[in-house]
Amino acid sequence: MASLKELKGRINSVKSTQKITKAKQMVAAAKLRRAQAAAEAARPYAERLTRVMASLAGKVSSDGAPKLLSGTGSRQRNLLVVVNTDKGLCGGLNANIVKAAKARAKALLAEGKDVQFYLVGKKGRAPIKRDYANRIEKWFDTSEVRQPGFDEAEAIADDLIERFEKGEFDVAHLVYPVFQSALVQNPTVDQLIPVPSPEEQAGTGGDAVVEYEPGEEEILEELLPRYVKTQLFGALLEREASEQGASMTAMDNATRNAGDLIKKLNIQYNRSRQAAITTELIEIIAGAEAL
């Protein structure tokens, strides 16, 4: 049985940890409001751009379509762009993202496809490296940026488009979390490059009757890269909101668990103290009787 001094030290240690988790919970809650607002504000723009892209793509012949839309004619070489967080202490968020990425990789490999990984964020590196060390194409580090934004999304998009134009891959899939609430962040896998065709974007309103000037091909040449950048920017915003929501929930659970542990330790401490007092009284009475 632990001594009173050891129990007291452990109680103080757990109380210190509880203060830290409570502070992190409050910080995450404050950041979550801003991150959630940013993610939700970006969704209508991305959805509207998707509808415009579908409308334009439906008016362009396969021969005149830009490569970002028509693709390479093959789906053999697949690139998984996995967006993880740079920091931990956010529950199972990163584990779920990695799980979704590995599941897609496993399915593609089972079909005889070639798979490579393009990792954004630090926390997904180690678990993916354990199983697919020779399939990691590149790490894009966002840890040195306080708030990753459109500049980072643009840099990633430019790099991916350049690799696609060089023929380094046929299809790029974006794996990222979609923020639903502080309790729910859903890992999602979307095709990023080539831009999904109108048939793949069913229900987006791509059949609207619209006349474009200049021609659809010229507009697509400008909008396709912006579409890729917008999708990546949205993924970074969803990641930030998901990270703060998951972190707030994880720290709340940790704070509650610390409180429960403190209660148990206090009970154990009081019982041990009472037992020590009782033993001491017995010894005093026995000594007095001996006199």
Coarse morphology: elongated
The low-confidence parts are 204-208
Class from secondary-structure proportions: alpha/beta
What is the makeup of the main sheet?
5 strands, mixed
Radius of gyration: 28 Å
Mean pLDDT: 82
- SSE arrangement, N to C: HHEHEHEHEEH
Distance between the termini: 33 Å
> Helical stretch count?
6
The percent range for helix content is: 55-70%
What is the number of E strands?
Answer: 5
- Order of strands across the main sheet: 3-2-1-4-5
Approximately what portion of the residues adopt beta-strand conformation? 5-15%
What's the arrangement of secondary structure elements?
Blueprint: H1 4-57, H2 67-70, E1 77-83, H3 93-110, E2 114-120, H4 125-132, E3 136-140, H5 150-165, E4 171-179, E5 185-193, H6 216-290
Parallel strand pairs: 1-2, 1-4, 2-3
Antiparallel strand pairs: 4-5
Helix pairs in contact: 1-6, 5-6
Please characterize this protein's 3D structure.
With 291 residues, the protein is α/β, with parallel strands linked by helices. Helices cover 60% and strands 13% of the residues. The chain contains six helices and five strands. Strands 3-2-1-4-5 form a five-stranded mixed β-sheet, with helices on both faces. Helix 1 runs antiparallel to helix 6 and helix 5 packs across helix 6. The radius of gyration is 28 Å and the shape is elongated. About 2% of the residues have low confidence.
